[in-house]
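Sequence dictates fold. Next comes a concrete instance:
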Amino acid sequence: MRSGFAGSIFGLLALASSAVLFAQTAKQSGAAAGTPNLSGTWNRSTGHAATGVFDDDPGGVPFFGFTKQEPSLQPAAVETYKANRQGITDPRLKGRDDLDPSSSCFPPGPTRIFTDPLPFEIRQTTGIVYILSQEDHWVRRIFTDGRGHPDGYPTAWMGHSIGKYEGDTLVVDTVDINDATWLDDLGHPHSDALHLVERIRRVNHDTLEIAVTFDDSKTYTKPWTGKKVYQLQPATYEIKEEMICEKYRKTGLRSDGFEFIKP
């Protein structure tokens, strides 16, 4: 009898302790109680960075891309993608610097920051999730307060993002994205019709997974999906200042000698 009673007491204490820990975790993330904690600074292994070749993600996904299967492009987009990679024979390497919008100080767009070898930080608050990129300090806001996409919203570099929690996953819906950006570092283009759906979840304490569905009928023959995996950085790690164009502004040229692309 006593052992059963003691077991019940210990069980209740364990449940209470778990509830306290969960509440503390939610409080630390700034999100409402009951939502998954995705907050933290995340990055991927840079592999053989000195040679310009980076380690593939699990499953053979190129470091600079989202999928090992090439998405099916519309005829005109095929020519654009070929131009972005002309002279580059290794499928793991990024697109041409002279045609890269980011090389001319254009913002990366909402998905490309996930293929750059730079960390990003997720901060959750009640009503908004922030993604803070080390690259040029770009900030992305995902509204989780129940609003929809507003009518007549202007095209923006990061688009307009709304999100909702489904179990352990933050589901993000993004539209109205400026078509001057690349989807990834490989040089995949897109149009102003691009519609993104991202599913962000914490696989375990140290691992974050982002699955993306790209839907753009002007550029691709059908929607396609990709996935990236990131590792949690130490709590003491802080994202730095990484101003890509800072060293080019004085000369008006990039390091490869090409002039900036004119907007």
Q: What stands out?
A: Confidence is low (pLDDT under 50) at residues 5-27, 253-263.
